User: Which sequence fits this backbone?
């Protein structure tokens, strides 16, 4: 009984530790303290934009996560643009004008990305149809 | 009957997908290559200093007349050293001017580097903070652009120039002419 309790306690502590690690790791971004803007609202905007911008060097990371030099340059540039009074749309345009749609982690809905957006729904519908069809038939049998 | 159809359809579909994947696997392509957003657009405007003469470098004065090859390089970049011989070969090409952009570099080191390896550039812009490179959509040096006589970007290659790319660029330059 005591052994069991001791074991449970250990498991409990481990779970708590794992949760805590998760909690704190969420705060470890690549943003350096000196990059952060004084104005909190502007800083939040910069962060939310950075999360949608691909780091062109480590291509599946956002510039918010990446410590590549270019990612840092772009983070600072985004903050500068925000300080100058550009709205989010203008900042995104500034970046896509130079690096193309590829720099956006989420592809925009355009004619050449339409298949990308619609096909999942299409396949889902086909799947539902097949299941429905099979069900109906097995009921008949 | 219908059930049989339902079974053959997915297998045909699966085979088709397999074929597409296999095709993409064997063709000569580089999936990490990103097309430039600046193709067929005007050269970004910028002003800086020239590395060797320390005079003003004004892009609108430079990018007109002859076809230009623009090469982003730095002394700390090993692939830049590797491709340097090809850049020198471009210098021998007639009716082509080679422009360098020295990216995030120490000017003294860059001058020494060019003295050691040879200077194929007719003019070199200093991009101390990498801001010019961002306007060109550069994400990793070396990168090389072809700009036609009207100042419009016609080609971009990211990465060092190899024999294959050298031939490709010569072909494109001849075609522009």
Assistant:
């Amino acid at each position: 009984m005591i052994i069991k309790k001791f074991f449970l306690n250990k498991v409990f502590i481990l779970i708590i530790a794992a949760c805590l690690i998760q909690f704190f790791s969420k705060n470890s971004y690549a943003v350096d303290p000196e990059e952060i803007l004084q104005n909190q609202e502007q800083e939040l905007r910069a962060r939310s934009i950075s999360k949608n911008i691909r780091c062109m060097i480590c291509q599946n990371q956002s510039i918010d996560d990446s410590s590549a030099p270019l990612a840092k340059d772009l983070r600072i540039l985004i903050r500068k643009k925000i300080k100058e009074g550009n709205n989010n749309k203008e900042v995104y345009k500034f970046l896509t004008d130079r690096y193309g749609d590829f720099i956006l982690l989420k592809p925009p809905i355009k004619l050449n990305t339409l298949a990308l957006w619609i096909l999942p729904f299409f396949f889902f519908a086909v799947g539902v149809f097949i299941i429905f069809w099979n069900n109906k038939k097995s009921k008949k049998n | 009957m219908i059930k049989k159809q339902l079974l053959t359809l997915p297998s045909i579909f699966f085979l088709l997908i397999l074929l597409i994947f296999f095709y993409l696997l064997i063709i000569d392509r580089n999936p990490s290559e990103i097309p430039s957003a600046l193709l067929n657009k005007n050269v970004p405007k910028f002003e800086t200093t020239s590395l060797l003469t320390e005079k003003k470098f004004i892009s609108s004065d430079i990018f007109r007349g002859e076809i230009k090859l623009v090469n982003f390089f730095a002394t700390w970049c090993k692939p830049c050293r590797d491709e340097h011989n090809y850049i020198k070969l471009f210098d021998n090409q007639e009716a082509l001017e080679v422009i360098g952009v020295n990216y995030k570099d120490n000017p003294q080191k860059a001058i020494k580097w060019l003295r050691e390896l040879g200077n194929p550039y007719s003019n070199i812009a200093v991009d101390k903070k990498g801001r010019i490179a961002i306007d060109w959509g550069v994400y990793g040096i070396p990168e090389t652009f072809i700009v036609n006589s009207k100042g419009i970007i016609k080609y971009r290659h990211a990465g060092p120039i190899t024999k294959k790319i050298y031939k490709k660029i010569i072909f494109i330059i001849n075609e522009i002419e």
Summary: Chain B touches chain A through 19 residues (CB under 8 Å). The longest strand of chain B covers residues 96-103. Chain B has one domain: 32-176.
